[in-house]
Amino acid sequence: MPTRKGRLAFCPQAWTSLTAPVYHGGIWGAIGASAALALAAGLGRWDRTDYGLLGGVGAALAAVLVSEVIGFAAFPLDRTGRPIALTWATRLLARLLCAAFVASGAAWAIQGGQPRAPRRRGAAHVPSA
User: Fold this and answer.
1) What angle do CA 37, 29, 67 make, to 5 degrees?
2) Through-space distance between the first and last CA atoms of the chain, rounded to whole angstroms
């Protein structure tokens, strides 16, 4: 880190490399929150909305991290560090990662505390006449 008079100096290159994850985290976090609320409302599980919000937002932030790492490692020339990547493949990858992570995170968080009804073995269903 460059220093000036014993203090850390402003480094514009370091700030510009953080703008894309901050933008993506904010936007995808809002998407995760709204998707979790919609899923909780659709399932009628209003008691689990707080877990759903945490699951949706947490999964969205994990998707940002995975998207940035994959973009940096697999697509170094596509400028994935920008708020909008240059190629269609990296933009598609980001959208698919966001959708998959948010859907799985919200569903896992909302359905996580639901007890399952035990099944009886050998009991056949007999329709009534």
Assistant:
1) 130
2) 81
Gap between the Cα atoms of 108 and 48, Å rounded = 11
Q: Which two tokens stand for residue 12?
A: 């514009």
Q: Which residues, in sequence order, are CB contacts of 95 under 8 Å at separation 6+?
A: none
C-beta separation of 57 from 23 below 8 A: no
Q: Give me 111's structure tokens.
A: 């359905």
Identify the helix (H) or strand (E) that includes residue 13. helix 12-43
Write the pLDDT tens digit of every residue in 38-91: 999 999 999 999 999 999 999 999 999 999 999 989 998 888 878 888 899 999
Give the sign of the dihedral formed by CA 94, CA 21, CA 28, CA 55: positive
Residue 2's pLDDT is what? 54
CB atoms within 10 A of CB 25: 17
